[in-house]
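Lecture 7, part 2: worked example. A protein chain together with NAP.
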Amino acid sequence: MSDRARIFATRSLAGAPLAGLAHRCDLDVWPARTAPTPEQLASRSRDADGLLCLLTDRIDAALLERCPRLRAVSSVSVGVDHVDLDAATARGIPVGHTPGVLTETTADLAFALLLAAARRVAEGDRFVRAGEWTPDRVWEPDLLLGRDVHGATLGLVGLGAIGQAMARRAQGFGMRVLAWSRTRRDMPGVAFASLDSLLPAADFVSVHVALNADTRGLLGESALARMKPGAVLVNTARGGIVDEDALADALRSGQLGAAGLDVFAREPLDPASPLLRLPNVVLTPHIGSASEATRARMVELAVENLLAALAGNPMPHCANPAVYARPT
Ligand code: NAP
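Predicted complex, written out as structure tokens:
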């Protein structure tokens, strides 16, 4: 590695890997809890050789243009829809990400949302806290009736790492599992299906594709209308894959029974979003990978990616491997 590479880390990240980075590089860490604005990001990255960023930092062509020294971008995330990969590749900049280490943790949250939406867990919690569980309503035959998960059919939209982890969980709960993926993958106990045949057959649909130009709006009005009436939608992938207005309409009309959502087209969720006013939606603030161990492992991997690139080696986990095929 060239002497004392300059790194800008867009957030303070706890743990030994960042301390190790500070030992080997000139490390500038954004001091605030909140993300830098695009202008702040550009001005702090201007002289950086490497960028350690989060999914809230937009790394677009205009930013890269303003960072002539930049040799590596490393994101503490598996999704890289916040990075213009083509622009980075064109400039010879490898973009690191953190696949694998957050798979099980994210699938845990997806299944938690599925269960919570099916069994009305958040509604039950609100009911108790609001003091509505009164002596005259100790046990009612039709109080908060939900849907059975066991014996139901789960449709997976995307059978990558997290989709497969979700399939394993569903099998443990006695669900029948259908899956659609761009690349056909055979997995024991999972029936591969077209999206057209999966949507009307599934009682629960869980989204696990990456967000890109092909998948943006994949679950729009017409796809939601093709889902089984009363079905439950779970999205822990990216908000832009589902049309939120169409989803709110489908939930309001009863076409869909419930939803569990961790990701949104715009984050944080707009206070005016109709989803906030629907009782049959369980909402979490993009916490799919949020366990202590997983977040620590993500930072470790992101720092490994950064150090490899700055040393002139291929990143262990590169989201734009085409960068290594470019003529030098
Ligand atoms: P992965 O193993 O790379 O799987 C990605 C899936 O997306 C694969 O099924 C892939 O199909 C599909 N896909 C990619 N580009 C596509 C396209 N153009 N058209 C159709 N399908 C396409 O990734 P993963 O680890 O399972 O993660 C999936 C996504 O979950 C991430 O991209 C990220 O956005 C999201 N995520 C969210 C959280 C959270 O906190 N809520 C945490 C982790 C991840 P192929 O197999 O054909 O490539």
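The domain at 6-101+292-325 is CATH 3.40.50.720 (Rossmann fold). The longest strand covers residues 256-261. Keep this in mind for problem set question 3.
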